[in-house]
Every structure is written in C-alpha cells, then in structure tokens.
Backbone:
C-alpha cells in the first residue's frame, strides 16, 4: 500500500510540473485529494488493513497529503507570479520612448524651470547629507504661525496675507517654514533637511508678486551650530546654482522664527545685452535666513539649551527669474507652452 501511495505522489509531481493554469492545478488536486480522489480511495481501503499496517501507513499518507497540499500552493503561487510577469511584459511602458516621440515630431514632456532648479538644489543638499521633506499645503494656524513664534497678536502676521478657510483655523500655508516644525518633531538632533514646495499669499499680483509661488526651506540643528555653518552652506548652495563662487553679504533681517535673522544678498551684475561694457552691478536680496529662535526649537521638541540651528527660506521662482533674466513672475505660472518650452529639460 505504501508503494502505491508513493507512486501516486511521484506521478502527481510529474503531472503538476507540466501544468501552467491554476484551474488545471485545482483539478489535479481534486483528482487526488477529492472525495473520489486516488489517494482518498486508497485511504478508504485502510479500514480493511491490519492494525500494524494501519499504524505504518497512517503517518506516511498524512505526510504525503501535506506535501501534496504544499506543492499545490507553491505551484498556484508560481503560476500567479508568471501571469503577473507576463502582463507586465505585455504592457511595458518604454520610458526611453520620449526621444523617439520627438523624432516623430510628437510632443514629449519637460520639467518646468522652477522644478528644474528645485531638483538641482535638492541634489546639492542630498549630497551634503540633508533629507528632502514634504509638508501639507493646507496647514493649521499652529504650524504656520504659533509654533514659529508668531502669536496671534504679533504684527508679523500682517506681513503675510493669508488665504483662510471658513473655520478660521486652517489656511493655505504662507511659507514653507511650517516644514521646520513638522521636521523637528519627527527627528532627534543632529539633523538637517530641506523642504521645497508651493506657498500661497492673498496678494494683488504684479511682476514680482504671485498668489502662489515656490519656496525651499532649509534647516540644520545640532550641538554648536553657528552662523559660520549657515554662511558655509549658503555659499555652497549658491556656488552650485550659479556655477561660481558668489560674493555674499549678510544684513540684519527680521523674522520672528530666527534670532539673529539675516537677509543674505548676492553681488549681482545684470547684463545688458545691448552693450557688453555697460553692466550695472549691485546687491540682490536673495535668501532670508538666521539662527533658529529658541521658542521655535522648543515647539519642535528640541532643547535650546543643548542644541542650536540655522534655517533659511529660498524663493525658488525668484531664483529662476534671476537665473534666466525673466522680468515677470506671472510668466512662470501661466502654463503658456511657448514660454515653458524655452526651458524644457530635454
Ligand atoms: N518664511 C519666510 C517667508 O516666507 C522666509 C524665511 C526667513 C525662512 C527666514 C526662514 C528664515 O527659514 O530663517 O518670508
């Protein structure tokens, strides 16, 4: 009887190997383990066997039954896997197709200049060990103001015209500094991150003002972080963007979430395309920054007695405008392909 059972198992294995459809596997299972299955039929004969035989056959047949069940599950999984792979292979998206599309004279896509600069800056900071964080566009009063040392009565709230929701508690974030609080709460010092994103102000638009624009926040917190670190990282950033060492100057600037706060200016020459020799140079206000205020560290769960940090908030659209000598910020947001295509990154 044992030989018979083993025979059933080995022919089951052979048959199973040859199958490629789940339904066939289930049929095979029924043909062996089902009520009228070959193994079940043999086991029915057990009742006529001697007690010694039964004692021998019982465990063997149980083992084999288990093996069959296991083999079936494995086979079903393997078939499913093959099917998924086959589907993936069939519906393959060829991401390199973009170039062939262009050869055919069809439209491909490209990155907006603001996002090109954003990615470039992210890469610079990633290479220096910073993380890149995200934050929500819809914020609460706490993260946008309170935790950043801007209490309700503080005049600084007037500096930012805000899109409030009807509940007067939520708003469209007016700056990416909100990411400082969220980032600090989730980590233990030392840490460093940047947080790029869209911000919103309820402002009348003109050549330098938009209702929605892009900032990139940055923060580094650790023991003995000082203004020297801030300047070093800002200069490294500017060098990566402008591809040369930039002359910078720090002026005092007021932001409630930093103390001291600075406006970092770069020495900027505005080229005059008509006259190579007539270039006017000057200082360009580019990068507000400072040493993180102790109250802000506290709000982020960081002990200001032990740790210090710097923060900065870079206007990405501003940077694009400076880089490409674009005179109206509204051009960046209009979605006009004739404009966008000039900067397409392909
Ligand atoms: N959040 C400020 C704004 O939108 C910019 C800013 C200033 C960010 C100083 C900073 C900073 O991190 O240190 O106007």
Residues:
């Amino acid at each position: 009887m044992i030989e018979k059972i083993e025979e059933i198992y080995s022919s089951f294995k052979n048959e199973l190997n040859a199958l490629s459809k789940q339904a066939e596997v289930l049929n095979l299972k029924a043909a062996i383990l089902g009520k009228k299955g070959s193994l079940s039929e043999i086991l029915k004969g057990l009742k006529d066997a001697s007690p010694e035989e039964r004692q021998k056959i019982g465990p063997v047949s149980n083992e084999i039954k288990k093996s069959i069940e296991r083999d079936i599950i494995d086979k079903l999984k393997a078939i499913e896997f093959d099917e998924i792979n086959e589907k993936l292979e069939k519906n393959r998206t060829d991401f390199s197709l973009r170039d062939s599309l262009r050869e055919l004279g069809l439209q491909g896509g490209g990155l907006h200049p603001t996002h090109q600069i954003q990615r470039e800056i992210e890469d610079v900071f990633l290479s220096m060990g910073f993380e890149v964080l995200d934050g929500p566009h819809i914020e609460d009063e706490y993260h946008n103001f309170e935790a950043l040392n801007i209490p309700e009565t503080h005049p600084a709230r007037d500096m930012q015209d805000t899109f409030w929701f009807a509940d007067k508690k939520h708003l469209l974030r007016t700056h990416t500094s909100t990411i400082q609080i969220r980032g600090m709460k989730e980590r233990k010092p030392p840490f460093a991150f940047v947080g790029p994103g869209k911000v919103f102000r309820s402002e009348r638009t003109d050549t330098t003002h938009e209702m929605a624009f892009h900032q990139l926040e940055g923060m580094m917190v650790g023991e003995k972080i000082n203004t020297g670190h801030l300047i070093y990282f800002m200069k490294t950033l500017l060098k990566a963007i402008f591809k040369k060492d930039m002359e910078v100057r720090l002026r005092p600037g007021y932001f409630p979430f930093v103390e001291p706060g600075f406006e970092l200016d770069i020495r900027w020459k505005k080229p005059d395309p008509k006259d190579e020799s007539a270039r006017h140079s000057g200082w360009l206000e580019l990068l507000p920054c400072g040493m993180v205020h102790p109250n802000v560290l506290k709000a982020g769960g960081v002990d200001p007695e032990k740790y210090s940090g710097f923060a900065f908030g870079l206007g990405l659209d501003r940077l694009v405008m400076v880089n490409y000598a674009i005179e109206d910020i509204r051009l960046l947001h209009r979605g006009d392909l004739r404009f966008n295509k000039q900067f397409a990154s392909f």
About this structure: The longest strand covers residues 258-270. The radius of gyration is 34 Å. The pocket of 3,4-dihydroxyphenylalanine is lined by residues 175, 177, 217, 255, 258, 261, 288-290, 311-313 (CB under 6 Å). The chain has 13 helices and nine strands.
